[in-house]
């Protein structure tokens, strides 16, 4: 259906041309794809099952990025949960706290994270032609004094000053301010809610200074899709949560409104905005797969026999070809006999489908404003809380019994791995990281990061002071007398070196762990010895033996 005409049309208010549905979709395809960005004050994330509830609502409403207020988690962190990445910033106590939850594929484009305080957090994502900067803010409530409000706006200004003027900035959050009904130039639209208060005036001043617009006041919606917070007892409904964007990118905003149907047992409604953003195309990285070493002890003999039957001994002097043939046989034997680990991402084991159904049933009663509806909502919420508490306690008891059994059997490595998994002490892999150049300027673009690493390594190994190969006067093999060559490489030396290799270590560029090299069988071991002797005599090495992989380790936050 075509948009409404006249002075109150949302399309007229936004100054857009009238387009039919197909024309709008084609225009969006040329410019980019719509992403859904939302903000929500959830009151607390410390309730059992609350995170699962939140992820369920993100899936149902197809939310790509969700800013969260009142997380109430201690300290700061960065973790993965199912198909989402959760970046949070808290304090020393379980109060306030903000977080940004990003869908897994979108999170791969994150280049910068700044955790300012338990009220402010920022992430920057790669997009075209300019980066996408998303901030989540939780402003002080009306109980706080004006000095705290001023301090928060100062922090916001300081953070925004660090960004480029052309960056696409989106500010989400619970502002605890009412901008009210009535248009204010380019900052506030005609479809706010309620009467403007002093905090609302402060927010409008901030928008004017930063050339921002309050998106969820520009689209005509019924009152139930404008209010974002209910007073206790449903004695009043207010619009205090907002999504702000730069005015220069206003045409990319397709819709913004509250979502009263979303439920997580909070007195706030989710506020969602659809915006056209052209995300930067990401290169497909090689996925690191791991051999399934849990069955290795049982399959050693079968692996050795497979190598013995398929390995070929060659007398050619081409060490590159000989090594590649040997590597192929070993990897093929491992694929056939050992196999890869099957990694399945599961939700929390103690979260059942019955609990998810109970969350969905509770959601249906959220907006039933009758005594029966409110009673049913409270009843279902209490039932859900009892079920989650009981299920989590039973799950922990089962996990503890499993760890006790591992300790009794002496499987300490598996036990420590289990403890690390349950405690969440493993650091998440953040993918590509930003680094600083020689002058301290932050680099986020892939090519510039590579160039900086090249520059750093060359300086580390003193490229300019290193003698050239022609200056080292290395003698050719044919120019040396046989009496001066020295003893050849012994088979026992090669075998001893192989047996001294430590097990349970990461593989190199050839994907072959030490365990495989130690169990090649007599024929495979002899071919490896022959290859090493050829390398020793000719001075030529396979390319795999000369490749180096640098793994940058992230510094701790407080390290110097």
Task: Write up this protein.
It is a single chain. This protein is α+β, with helices and mostly antiparallel strands and 560 residues long. It has helices spanning 10-14, 21-31, 50-61, 104-107, 146-161, 198-210, 296-310, 319-338, 353-364, 371-408, 412-423, 446-460, 482-485, 491-499, 514-517, 521-538, 543-546, and strands spanning 33-41, 65-69, 76-81, 84-89, 98-103, 110-117, 120-125, 127-128, 132-138, 168-174, 212-214, 229-230, 237-238, 241-246, 253-259, 270-279, 435-436, 442-443. Among the domains are: 20-278, Endonuclease/exonuclease/phosphatase (Deoxyribonuclease I, Chain A); 353-423, no CATH class; 434-466, no CATH class. Mean pLDDT is 84; it is low at 1-23 and 25-30.
Features:
560 residues; alpha+beta; Deoxyribonuclease I, Chain A; eight-stranded mixed β-sheet; six-stranded mixed β-sheet; disordered N terminus
Query: What's the helical proportion of residues?
Result: 25-40%
CATH superfamily descriptor of the domain at 20-278: Endonuclease/exonuclease/phosphatase
Count of strand segments: 18
Low-pLDDT residue intervals, each spanning 5 or more residues: 1-23, 25-30
CATH class descriptor of the domain at 20-278: Alpha Beta
C-alpha-based Rg, rounded: 31 Å
Give the CATH architecture of the domain at 20-278.
Answer: 4-Layer Sandwich
Distance between the termini: 61 Å
Coarse morphology = elongated
Round the mean pLDDT to the nearest integer and report it: 84
Q: DSSP helix count? A: 17
The major sheet is characterized as: 8 strands, mixed
Beta-strand level of the residues, as a percent range? 15-25%
Looking at the structure, the CATH topology of the domain at 20-278 is Deoxyribonuclease I, Chain A
Structural class: alpha+beta
């Amino acid at each position: 259906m075509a948009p409404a005409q006249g002075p109150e049309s949302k399309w007229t208010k936004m100054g857009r041309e009238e387009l039919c549905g197909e024309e709008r979709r084609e225009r969006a395809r040329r410019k980019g794809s719509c992403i859904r960005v939302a903000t929500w004050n959830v009151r607390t994330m410390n309730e059992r099952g609350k995170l699962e509830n939140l992820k369920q609502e993100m899936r149902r409403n197809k939310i790509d990025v969700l800013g969260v207020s009142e997380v109430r988690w201690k300290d700061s962190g960065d973790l993965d949960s199912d198909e989402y990445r959760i970046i949070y910033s808290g304090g020393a106590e379980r109060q306030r706290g903000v977080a940004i939850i990003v869908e897994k594929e979108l999170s791969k484009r994150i280049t910068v994270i700044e955790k300012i305080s338990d009220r402010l957090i920022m992430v920057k994502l790669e997009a075209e032609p300019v980066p996408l900067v998303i901030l989540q803010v939780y402003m002080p409530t009306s109980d706080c004094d004006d000095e705290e409000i001023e301090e928060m706006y100062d922090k916001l200004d300081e953070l925004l000053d660090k960004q480029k003027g052309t960056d696409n900035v989106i500010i989400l959050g619970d502002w605890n301010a009412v901008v009210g009904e009535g248009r204010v130039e380019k900052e506030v639209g005609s479809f706010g809610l309620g009467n403007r208060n002093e905090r609302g005036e402060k927010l409008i001043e901030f928008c004017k200074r930063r050339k921002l617009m309050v998106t969820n006041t520009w689209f005509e919606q019924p009152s139930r899709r404008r209010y974002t917070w209910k007073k206790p007892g449903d004695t009043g409904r207010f619009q205090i949560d907002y999504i702000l964007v730069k005015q220069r990118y206003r045409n990319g905003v397709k819709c913004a409104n509250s979502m009263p149907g979303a439920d997580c047992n909070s007195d706030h409604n989710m506020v969602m905005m659809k915006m056209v953003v052209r995300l930067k195309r990401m290169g497909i990285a090689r996925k690191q797969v791991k051999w399934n070493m849990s069955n290795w002890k049982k399959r050693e003999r079968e692996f050795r026999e497979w190598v013995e039957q398929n390995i070929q001994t060659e007398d050619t002097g081409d060490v590159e070809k000989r090594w590649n043939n040997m590597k192929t046989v070993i990897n093929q034997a491992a694929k056939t006999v050992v196999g890869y680990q099957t990694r399945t991402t599961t939700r929390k084991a103690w979260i059942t489908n019955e609990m998810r159904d109970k969350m969905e049933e509770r959601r249906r009663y959220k907006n039933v404003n009758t005594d029966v509806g409110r009673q049913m909502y409270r009843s279902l919420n209490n039932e859900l809380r009892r079920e989650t508490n009981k299920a989590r306690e039973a799950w922990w008891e089962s996990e503890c019994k499993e760890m006790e059994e591992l300790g009794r059997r002496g499987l300490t490595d598996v036990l420590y791995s289990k403890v690390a998994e349950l405690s969440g002490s493993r650091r998440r892999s953040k993918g590509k990281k930003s680094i600083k150049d020689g002058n301290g300027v932050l680099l986020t673009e892939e090519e510039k990061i590579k160039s900086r690493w090249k520059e750093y390594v060359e300086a580390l190994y003193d490229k300019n002071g290193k003698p050239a190969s022609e200056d080292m006067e290395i003698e050719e093999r044919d120019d040396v007398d046989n009496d001066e060559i020295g003893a050849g490489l012994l088979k026992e030396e090669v075998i001893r070196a192989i047996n001294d290799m430590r097990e349970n270590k990461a593989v190199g560029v050839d994907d072959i762990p030490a365990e495989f090299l130690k169990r090649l069988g007599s024929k495979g071991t002899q071919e490896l010895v022959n290859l090493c002797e050829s390398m020793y005599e000719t001075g030529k090495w396979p390319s795999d033996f000369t490749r180096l992989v640098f793994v940058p380790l992230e510094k701790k936050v407080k390290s110097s």
